[in-house]
Amino acid sequence: xxxxxxxxxxxxxxxxxxxxxxxxxxxxxxxxxxxxxxxxxxxxxxxxxxxxxxxxxxxxxxxxxxxxxxxxxxxxxxxxxxxxxxxxxxxxxxxxxxxxxxxxxxxxxxxxxxxxxxxxxxxxxxxxxxxxxxxxxxxxxxxxxxxxxxxxxxxxxxxxxxxxxxxxxxxxxxxxxxxxxxxxxxxxxxxxxxxxxxxxxxxxxxxxxxxxxxxxxxxxxxxxxxxxxxxxxxxxxxxxxxxxxxxxxxxxxxxxxxxxxxxxxxxxxxxxxxxxxxxxxxxxxxxxxxxxxxxxxxxxxxxxxxxxxxxxxxxxxxxxxxxxxxxxxxxxxxxxxxxxxxxxxxxxxxxxxxxxxxxxxxxxxxxxxxxxxxxxxxxxxxxxxxxxxxxxxxxxxxxxxxxxxxxxxxxxxxxxxxxxxxxxxxxxxxx
Length: 431
Prior knowledge:
- By secondary structure, this protein is an alpha+beta fold.
- The protein has helices at residues 3-27, 30-38, 52-73, 201-207, 227-237, 259-262, 281-292, 373-379, and strands spanning 108-115, 124-126, 128-132, 135-136, 142-146, 164-170, 180-186, 192-196, 208-215, 218-225, 241-246, 251-252, 267-268, 276-280, 311-313, 326-335, 340-353, 393-400, 404-407, 411-417.
- It has one domain.
- The protein contains eight helices and 20 strands.
């Protein structure tokens, strides 16, 4: 049957039924109906004579009348309006200015991203990556140890480590084809080795040995590569060394990020004390201006690479070092090609107290006997907590609260400031 005919028949049937109900309503004896209801004994009811259409319609009408009465008697509630916080980030993620805290600076821009796959070795500048709670992807996942004492090797005692270059390349043959690989090479030579950048558990089991290593007087586990990988590095260091990859046991962040001060345990890889360091271009510019007229300066302007930060922001040239006052910050990355927006909140838990690593020229491995250490000691001893009393500060140590992608050009805004940072002393909740 034609669909239009079916529709017309359905409408006609519905209209006829409605008309029949209306006819019943017009002819009903409501007084008799009410008397019947009052004296109704269901044992004597003959349901075969009941007009169900009338009963149904009467029930509906009584229901609507009841709803209307209740609605008019109930006071109107005010609409809650939009939430002021970001559900994706959780409660307390909004900007907050405390009356006695330093002013919140205007937003700035991420101008560079850097990762250092092998601790103390040369890093890589990248355009984008993923920021995890353990830090930027591939940052400090590896380090070198001495085979004799099992302790980590550091640029502090061996500046030549900056001549070990790292790179991420695509595998081209065999089981590594189309895999991302970590390529490690010795600056100025043809010596190089490659290992999977994201090794599977099975690959590690087949190609490494899980062992115990020591970093900053604490033991942790690590996957140790074999002689075929380590020969190049033994020749470079002129002693037995081994490249190791962080093992499965969590290594917790230290200083102000430890549980007693931050409130929760936060795992990371082989970074010294914390998963992420952010620095400002405005601050390195200010340092270089101060070094310009010193006869014993390092010569050419220093690059930010000497301080080995992960995220570099532009900052304000007329307000250098204002990152000292950060407490909570947010990085917003817009990726139009993916139709994606990432908002990552971070806690700036401590200033970064410095050693003399920035005195090492990353291009030559030569260590200047004085600068920039002396100049930094002159004006950047700004934190009286713990060992920071005796050291200058540059950059901020941060812990990500959530994860997402980050790209050069991202917006960084400060959500809250403080003037109460104390290295390895202050609780985050009390800042």
